[in-house]
Amino acid sequence: MAWDRNQMAARAAQELEDGMYVNLGIGIPTLVANYVGDKDITLQSENGMLGMGPFPFEGEEDPDLINAGKQTITELDRTAYFDSATSFGMIRGGKIAAAILGAMEVAENGDLANWMIPGKLVKGMGGAMDLVAGVGRVIVVMDHTNKAGESKVLRECTLPLTGKSVVDRIITNLGVLDVVPGGLKIVECAEGVTEEELRAATEATIVG
Amino acid sequence: MKKVYATAGEALDGLLHDGMFIAAGGFGLCGIPELLIAAIRDAGTKDLTIASNNCGVDDFGLGILLKTRQIKKMISSYVGENAEFMRQYLSGELELEFNPQGTLAERMRAGGCGIPGFYTKTGVGTVIAEGKEVKSFDGQDYILERGIVADLSIVKAWKADDTGNLVFRKTARNFNPPAAMCGRVCVAEVEEIVPRGSLDPDLIHLPGIYVHRIVQGQHEKRIEQRTVRKREDA
């Protein structure tokens, strides 16, 4: 037993507090928006928008209104638009409280790799390097192991980095870990997962 | 001060030369200067270096300049939606410089503001930092990135007045203001040119000082990923 995609997103939503400005990455992080409940959260889209709304109703798509994943979206009564330099100014300047992102690998010192696999097609880092370097708190949401069953929570990343010592918390299908001095600390195990199972699936050093 | 031109081709007349450096606005296919890109294709200008967040798709946006082999080098943050791009890149025909998205935007803004370089923590400890000066401020490392000054900027806005003051619409603003600022000459294409005095001076997004030529035209405004939600049944 472990958490599925929606349960991981729901767990990640618990990290968000009333009044936060937050940037959500593509994939499972996008689902986090479905679980914020009554909390007053403002979503940033790094192509130039604060206050991102849901997908439009069919027939109401606007080509001038997209998110960073190039999907059509809508605005809210709180929405503000701005240019890309201003957008990354607020990211780099630490005004965005948290970013929730996917990852290929995370290391015990908080190193993050999520933008390129050498030898495979490289599409680019987009805004990921700016986000992890700039926002207040970086939360990674990903599967604990890859398709081959190997740990993605490592002593050291093997892939080119997106950021060095940038991750604060890791939420996987098996549980929640924090980056602390000396390694990772288990915060909680997913429903039906034992601490032994979580440790066995983790290559990184677990402390405490 | 005549800034209004009848067609995109006329607006670019005398500004294009082989090997030039162009900064282009737009994010994905949103807010791209599609008419000016088509006019550059028609002009046949070659060996272009283009700074733009993306490179369009195969048959729209900057992608059409790839098809005609007019681009020598791209400076971009993400090029995922373009098969021809990957083909030319992997075969060595096309050079590519990846910039983090915020670094690219700030390089344009800085270049337009007379700032030749700036320090950022984006990319510290990654391949992006290779060969760049590292400097520590208050115990934190930063890398030096250069401002961009382009020979020409091409941008898309919603409305302009005839003095070049621009107003953008929703997320179609994106890279257009910083791209406009970093060009020695900037040509803007707009959906509507309105008489001076009809735009609220307090609500101008980019002052006309940055905009040298304007052309009005019809835009296709293609949607890259149409995502919708279902209406609740009544």
UniProtKB/TrEMBL annotation, chain A:
<keyword id="KW-0808">Transferase</keyword>
<dbReference type="Pfam" id="PF01144">
    <property type="entry name" value="CoA_trans"/>
</dbReference>
<dbReference type="InterPro" id="IPR012791">
    <property type="entry name" value="3-oxoacid_CoA-transf_B"/>
</dbReference>
<protein>
    <submittedName>
        <fullName>Putative succinyl-CoA:3-ketoacid coenzyme A transferase subunit B</fullName>
        <ecNumber>2.8.3.5</ecNumber>
    </submittedName>
</protein>
<dbReference type="GO" id="GO:0008260">
    <property type="term" value="F:succinyl-CoA:3-oxo-acid CoA-transferase activity"/>
</dbReference>
<dbReference type="InterPro" id="IPR004165">
    <property type="entry name" value="CoA_trans_fam_I"/>
</dbReference>
<comment type="similarity">
    <text>Belongs to the 3-oxoacid CoA-transferase subunit B family.</text>
</comment>
<dbReference type="InterPro" id="IPR037171">
    <property type="entry name" value="NagB/RpiA_transferase-like"/>
</dbReference>
TrEMBL record, chain B:
<dbReference type="InterPro" id="IPR012792">
    <property type="entry name" value="3-oxoacid_CoA-transf_A"/>
</dbReference>
<dbReference type="Pfam" id="PF01144">
    <property type="entry name" value="CoA_trans"/>
</dbReference>
<dbReference type="InterPro" id="IPR004165">
    <property type="entry name" value="CoA_trans_fam_I"/>
</dbReference>
<feature type="transmembrane region" description="Helical">
    <location>
        <begin position="20"/>
        <end position="40"/>
    </location>
</feature>
<protein>
    <submittedName>
        <fullName>Putative succinyl-CoA:3-ketoacid coenzyme A transferase subunit A</fullName>
        <ecNumber>2.8.3.5</ecNumber>
    </submittedName>
</protein>
<keyword id="KW-0812">Transmembrane</keyword>
<keyword id="KW-0472">Membrane</keyword>
<dbReference type="InterPro" id="IPR004163">
    <property type="entry name" value="CoA_transf_BS"/>
</dbReference>
<dbReference type="InterPro" id="IPR037171">
    <property type="entry name" value="NagB/RpiA_transferase-like"/>
</dbReference>
<keyword id="KW-0808">Transferase</keyword>
<dbReference type="GO" id="GO:0008260">
    <property type="term" value="F:succinyl-CoA:3-oxo-acid CoA-transferase activity"/>
</dbReference>
<keyword id="KW-1133">Transmembrane helix</keyword>
<comment type="similarity">
    <text>Belongs to the 3-oxoacid CoA-transferase subunit A family.</text>
</comment>
